[in-house]
Automatic annotation (TrEMBL):
GO biological process, any: ergosterol biosynthetic process
EC number: 1.3.1.71
Identification of the protein by name: Delta(24(24(1)))-sterol reductase
Leading EC class: oxidoreductase
Region (Disordered): 107-142
Annotated organism of origin: Penicillium cf. viridicatum
CDD domains xref list: RNase_HI_RT_Ty1
Length: 559
């Protein structure tokens, strides 16, 4: 048989033909040249190639010519598929079932000695380019997973509906049961103290038994905190209005991390906990279930529930509801103070500015949170639902609630000290905003999906050009530059500073404004420790190198 060189196009796709790479084979070597071509503008070619590939292959396959088997123009497709599955990337292995969203397929084409025509390049429509300024190519991951590999709680080759982990967080069934009962009771208790006890801890009066005291608290909740029809109308009108805006107003489409257990599906971005849990079970949409109903109800059953294919519940509940309710409550505090005293104190204005900056940051960087741990990994259960609908707005607001119930003279700051506090807060906000922008923007840049939005405020150093990185043995990349080159969790430090500031502005006459400060500090430290453990498992020696190069966790040169 006369051997000849054969040209192939290895096509990477994520549910559709997306990118093409030219592969030229000879007797002993494989040469790969990236063409950055796409079939998106040629529906006929795209349909033909996609149908051909999907018909032949149910999993991603890569091939390589070897000295034992030379690929020729007469090599059949079956022979092509039988070739060794190897790659220079150490994450690839021979004869291993593959699980990946961006598969890799091969189409043969005899060589004519001429340069083959390139596939048409995808073009951006002028309207889309000017409106969203989206990067030109959608990402397709080249990561291939082996059977038995652990990926964020899922073991490749096993049922993703069943948790592969034997670890239980939050104290397992007993701990999660206590949290589900204790947190609502704690919120009522704090509200009673702020409203009826002048910000002090509610305690039994002299001669009052604990039983009488408990009945008294229940009576206060029933008479003062029982949901009224007016409150329901206000809350659900706001909720539905936000949901409609989420679905119909112009916005930015973005891609999240591929979900390996969903064949690489990517994220673009009711009484609720019960509906979410049982509807997921009914639809068979549960994920990483442990078999312990209470624990699973707390953490959730479904990973990324959606309505109408647009309304992503986790993203909507995390951004659109809690922080805007909190900002609304701080504005209501300012309105109440103006109504009473005909002016708004600088301390109340501080909270309005602080809560505005936080809510605004959530809105302007909304497309970046889809690659965050909460969206990518955490399931949609009682923990996220209750905390976003009730915990954040109704417990973090106690700083504003205290100022609303007290005369301004009770918490008045020295004007010079307060002015310096404003400046310090804005400086820390700049670090926090740009650190998060650098971190999330780097992940988007990796996949050529960075969206440049002209949002307010536009701050310097939001992205790092050509950042220094460390690559793990599996091909995962860690950014070791920008603010993350000074401290690994510097953005957590800023969050802790915000929490402490919201308590500090109220003084020390009431413990309730400090609930968020203490709670969030503990939570942030716990999450930092958990993240470090998870990153050591995921990145291996690369993470150890990052810790050596950036030894500070929270504050540069301090801790």
């Amino acid at each position: 048989m006369i051997q000849s060189t054969t040209q192939y196009y290895v096509i990477e796709f994520s549910g559709y033909v997306d990118m093409a790479t030219e592969v030229v084979t000879g007797d002993d070597e494989v040469l790969q040249q990236s063409s950055d071509a796409s079939f998106a503008d040629d529906p006929g070619t795209r349909k033909l190639a996609q149908g051909y590939l999907m018909k032949l292959f149910s999993r991603a396959i890569m091939w390589q010519s070897s000295k034992q088997k030379t690929v020729t123009t007469s090599t059949t497709e079956a022979e092509l598929l039988s070739l060794s599955h190897t790659h220079r990337d150490p994450s690839f292995s021979i004869n291993t079932p593959l699980y990946q969203g961006a598969g890799t397929m091969a189409l043969a084409q005899p060589s004519t000695g001429k340069t083959p025509p390139q596939a048409p390049t995808r073009r951006k429509s002028p309207k889309t380019a000017s409106a969203a300024n989206v990067s030109e190519s959608k990402a397709s991951t080249s990561r291939i997973y082996r059977n038995g590999e652990r990926i964020d709680g899922w073991e490749v080759g096993t049922d993703p509906k069943v948790s592969a982990s034997n670890e239980f967080e939050f104290g397992g069934n007993l701990g999660t049961s206590s949290l589900m009962i204790g947190f609502p009771l704690l919120m009522w208790y704090m509200w009673i103290g702020a409203t009826y006890y002048d910000g002090k801890l509610p305690l039994p009066e002299e001669g009052q038994s604990w039983g009488e005291f408990g009945r008294h608290l229940v009576e206060l909740v029933y008479t003062g905190a029982y949901p009224s029809l007016r409150a329901w109308r206000i809350y659900w009108t706001f909720f539905i209005f936000e949901a409609i805006c989420y679905c119909v107003l112009p916005g930015v489409w973005a891609w999240g991390k591929p979900l390996p257990h969903e064949n690489g599906k990517q994220l673009n971005g009711f009484l609720v906990a019960f509906v979410a849990y049982f509807s997921a079970l009914w639809r068979g949409a549960q994920h990483r279930m442990t078999g312990y109903p209470i624990y699973d109800f707390f953490l959730g059953a479904e990973l990324n529930p959606r309505m109408f294919g647009i309304l992503d519940f986790k993203m909507f509940f995390m951004v659109r509801i809690p922080w805007f309710i909190l900002f609304g409550l701080s504005c209501a505090t300012a309105a109440r103070q103006y109504e009473r005293y005909r002016y708004v104190s600088a301390e109340v204005l501080f909270l309005v500015v602080a809560h505005y900056l936080y809510a605004n940051a959530c809105a302007k960087g909304e497309q970046l949170i889809i690659s965050s741990w909460d969206i990518y990994y955490e399931k949609w259960g009682f923990m996220l639902i209750f905390w976003n609908l009730a915990g954040v707005p109704m417990s973090y607001c106690h700083c504003a609630l205290f100022l609303a119930n007290q005369h301004p003279s009770e918490y008045k700051w020295n004007p010079v000290a307060l002015a310096a506090f404003y400046v310090l807060y804005l400086f820390v906000y700049w670090i926090w905003d740009t650190a998060n922008s650098q971190k999330n923007g780097f992940r988007a840049q990796e996949r050529n999906q960075l969206v440049n939005r002209k949002t307010f405020p536009q701050l310097p150093w939001q992205t790092v050009k050509n950042p220094k990185t460390i690559t793990s043995s599996k091909g995962d990349v860690i950014m070791v530059d920008g603010w993350l080159g000074y401290a690994r969790k510097i953005h957590y430090s800023c969050d802790i500073f915000f929490a402490l500031s919201w308590g500090l502005i109220t003084g020390f006459k009431s413990p309730f404004p400090w609930f968020y400060s203490v709670f969030f500090t503990i939570m942030a430290i716990h999450r930092a420790v958990r993240d470090a453990r998870r990153c050591r498992e995921k990145y291996g020696e690369a993470w150890a190198q990052y810790e050596r190069e950036v030894p500070y966790l929270f504050i540069p040169y301090v801790i």
